[in-house]
Structure formats: structure tokens, C-alpha cells
Amino acid sequence: MTDEAAERVAEWVRPEIRALSAYHVPDAGGLIKLDAMENPYAWPDELRTQWAELARTLDVNRYPHPQAPALKEQLRAAMAVPPGAELLLGNGSDEIIQMIALALAGPERTVLTVEPGFVMYRMIAVFAGMRYCGVPLRSDDFALDTPALLEAIARHRPAVVFIAQPNNPTGNRFDEAALVQVIEAAPGLVVIDEAYAPFTDASLLPRVGQWPNLLVMRTVSKMGLAGLRLGYLAGPAAWLNEFDKVRLPYNINVLTQRAAELALRHKAVLDAQTAAIREERGRLHAALAAIDGVTPFPSEANFILFRVPAGRAKAVFDGLRARRILVKILDGAHPLLADCLRVTVGTPDENAAFVAALRECV
Ligand SMILES: *Cc1c(COP(=O)(O)O)cnc(C)c1O
């Protein structure tokens, strides 16, 4: 039976899908979890009580509102979305990337991005049967290699360019003037992925509407609501109306709609948490820089990329794990990430435990 199933799989599942590995999420049971850019702070009791009361009154036998207008209104106000821009909601911003790819896909269509960057752009290009082009960042500081990027745009004429600002996994913020050059040179769409907006002052959201091909994507995941799965895309209605056609009905479930509305009514709580993370990031960066053999890179996100001595990344990762700390190993993911690991900024206690463990491992 299994052999026969395997034969049918080989015959019918597309080779490029068989060649992929599923998005890997390691088991974090019992570990200090500093691998996934989550906000380490939970909701205060007062909010939990209000959420429990809300949940009690929900009719889960009914479908959620298909357009979630109340939630959209709140997002607009809370995130200062410009008046001319429309909003599209996704079950996480990953789903928005997928909607964009589905709407633009074709065998001759290219997804273009920078590398090292967010891996879902490439994965989703493969899902959608699109070509993919990753333009390397500069090796010394992970800045945009603007001439190379403009040359690649002219050559591939990408249907869509995705750029995360600040970038994941490097953490740095790109020069806004260079991004504008990309927007002006791109024949198709440019999506600026502002997943880490709560941790930086950089944003192109206020400039949505200034170019016909600029969309800004955000998520509530990194600001403290990763469990809800909610992303949003802001831009001209002409684009969003098309993407809305490939959106599956009711993609934002009723619990997410109500919980996000509640959280946004108490956005000050989340803002205080992300402000604390920003401060803690500075302390963590200084602590890393003070360890012999560790080189942390500048970060405007809620994580820090750091390099350890050549050939030591796996041993450091295993050593941290043995000390009950889970980070992300990036050595091997891209040539520019040789000997690199990435740590999410946690609570002061978690960061202190991490720094102490790292000192022992390096
Ligand atoms: C985490 C992350 C996302 C995904 O966010 P979700 O809304 O949780 O799907 C998108 N882009 C970048 C750059 C990220 O780091």
C-alpha cells in the first residue's frame, strides 16, 4: 500500500513540491523560546477576563463576517493607514503573500526579492509555479545592492518584488531612497513587508498612494498577537479588489476578529510591551558585543543576528539547547549567513539566561 501510494505521489505531485521541505517548527517544550520573534509578554489578567467574557457571547455556529469591517476600521485608526488606501486581511501575512502570488502567477512570471531574506517568498513562488529570483545583499553590511537589484529588475521584469523592511533574518533597515528607486524601476508590484514595524521608525505606510505599484504589508504577529494569525495589506483599491477574488471566504475566523478588536482597543498595552522589547534589544546587543568571538549585527527588529567563530555555529546551537535555550541556526541557510544564529529579544530574565549560556558555549 505504502509503495503504491509512493508511486502515485511520484506520478502526480509536482516535482518542485516534492523537492521542498515543509516549513520546520522545532519542538520548544520546556525551553526558553527565542527562535520565532514572538513577544514574550502575555496579556494582563484584566484583558484575559474581558476576552473570556467576549468569547462567552460569540456564536461559533455562525460564519464570521466575510469582510470584517469593524476590525478593518480599528486597524485603520490604530495603524494610521492613509485615507486613500484600502485594506485586505489575511490569515497571517503569509496568506497575503500567497494571495498575491496566486493572482499574479504564470510560468513566465517572476517573484523577485533579496537574499538572505524571508523564506516564504521563495516557498510561495514555488507553490504558485512562478519563477524566483533572489538578489544577494551586500556581504559586509547586508545593505541593498542597488545596482544589482535594478539590473535584476530590468532583466527579469518581475511581477512582484517583496522586500522586508526591516529585513528578516538580518535585522537591518534598508535605505528608504534605495527602496524608492526599486519602486520606481519595478514594472509590476512592490510589496514592502513591514512585519517588524513596531520595532523601528522606518515605514512606507504613510507613502502608500504615492506610486501605483506600492503595497505595504503588516502583521500583528510580532507585536504580540502571533496566535491570532492576522496580517493586513494596504494599498490602492485596484490591486486589492483583484486579490480579494482569490481570498478564501471567511479567512479571518470569528475568534480572531473579536480578539484583535479587543487587543486594538487596548493597544497601549501592546505598545508598552514593544517599547520594552526595543529597549531590551539595545542591552542585549551590548551584552553580545561584549562576548569574545561574538559579533552581533545592528537590528531594528525584535531579534538580533549574530556571528560566532568559524565552524562553531552548530556547537553553539546545541550548547544553548542543552542549556534549555532555543534560538535559530542560520549557518547553511545562505552563504552570507555562514556561522550565524538569530535570537529573539525576550524578557530581561530570558535574555540574561541566554547571554550567560552563550558565554559558556562560545
Ligand atoms: C514573521 C514574518 C512574516 C509572517 O507573519 P505572519 O503574519 O505571522 O504570517 C512575514 N514577513 C516577515 C518578514 C516575517 O518575519
As laid out across the biggest beta sheet, the strand order is: 2-8-7-6-5-3-4
Class from secondary-structure proportions: alpha/beta
| Cα distance spanning the termini | 49 Å
Number of strands: 13
Unreliable spans: none
CATH architectural name of the largest domain: 3-Layer(aba) Sandwich
**Beta fraction of the residues?**
15-25%
Number of domains: 2
Overview of this protein structure:
By secondary structure, the chain is an alpha/beta fold. It has 2 domains: 3-44 and 268-361, Aspartate Aminotransferase, domain 1 (Alpha-Beta Complex); 63-265, Type I PLP-dependent aspartate aminotransferase-like (Major domain) (Aspartate Aminotransferase, domain 2). The protein has 14 helices and 13 strands. The protein has helices at residues 2-12, 15-18, 45-56, 69-79, 93-104, 119-127, 146-156, 176-185, 221-225, 237-246, 254-265, 267-289, 313-322, 348-361; strands at 32-33, 86-90, 110-115, 131-136, 160-164, 189-193, 214-219, 231-235, 295-296, 303-307, 325-326, 328-329, 340-344. The chain has a 7-stranded mixed beta sheet, sandwiched between helices. A 4-stranded antiparallel beta sheet has the order 9-10-13-12, covered by helices on one side. β9 and β10 form a beta hairpin. α3 (45-56) runs antiparallel to α11, α4 packs parallel to α11 (254-265) and α12 (267-289) runs parallel beside α14 (348-361). The longest helix is centred in the C-terminal third of the chain and has 23 residues, at 267-289. It is globular and about 55 Å long. The structure holds pyridoxal-5'-phosphate (PLP). Pyridoxal-5'-phosphate binds next to α5.
